[in-house]
Write a structure and sequence with these properties.
single chain; alpha+beta; Jelly Rolls; 2 domains; 8 helices; cNMP-bd_dom; RmlC-like_jellyroll
Length: 203
């Protein structure tokens, strides 16, 4: 397939088998959407009406707590992006998703996603698996945000997003870790020359 939506099709195919008829059904249901750096996929207080697949680019998920932004996740190439709580309930979002690089996505509306679930050969299985994965991931990220130590959060960042250290600012990493940039610098200084994979979360 030469269609630029190929990566989206391959992502779905990695979860469930797709026949030629399934692919023909899927292609027109996704539409391209371009976000410039700083644009929002969804803002706090808005209802999330679509699910996106990131073709190129990078987004951050964050919550506001007493005026302080706390990043709890990133989305990058080949990831689905959505505030699933808002999307599924059609209630205003309690968090924001923002592009931190110019990004190209393919998005599908709620109505078309329901059609995909209903008409794909393995549509119901696809929907169930994706929702289960997102639920487990999101709960783990939010629990970690409030319970793990800064060192454990930093190690998690390095483990989960090994390619992002050169793509995001120190502010973004510090926000994910849950510390000020100065404190992140001190963590990095302590770890200088160490093998971070051997550092326990209790350090």
């Amino acid at each position: 397939m030469d269609n630029p939506i190929t990566k989206t099709i391959e992502k779905i195919r990695s979860i469930v088998p797709l026949s030629d008829a399934d692919i023909e059904l899927t292609l027109p249901l996704f539409q391209p959407w371009h976000l410039r750096k700083g644009d929002y996929f969804v803002q706090e207080g808005q209802v999330c009406h679509q699910v996106g697949f990131i073709q190129t680019g990078l987004v951050r998920y964050f919550v506001n707590q007493d005026g302080d932004e706390k990043i709890y996740s990133f989305g990058l190439e080949n990831d689905f992006v959505c505030d699933y709580e808002s999307f599924l309930s059609q209630q205003p979002s309690r968090r924001a998703v923002q592009a931190i690089e110019d990004s190209t996505l393919y998005v599908i509306s709620s109505a078309n996603l329901q059609r995909l679930f209903a008409e794909l050969t393995y549509g119901e299985r696809f929907g169930r698996i994706v929702i289960e994965q997102i639920f487990v991931q999101t709960i783990g990220q939010l629990v970690s945000l409030y319970t793990d130590s800064p060192e454990a959060r930093y190690k998690a960042f390095l483990d989960e997003y090994p390619s992002l250290a050169t793509r995001v600012t120190q502010y973004h990493i510090a926000s994910y870790v849950g510390v000020k940039p100065q404190s992140l610098s001190r963590i990095r200084a302590r770890w200088a020359g160490k093998d971070y994979t051997r550092i326990s979360s209790s350090e």
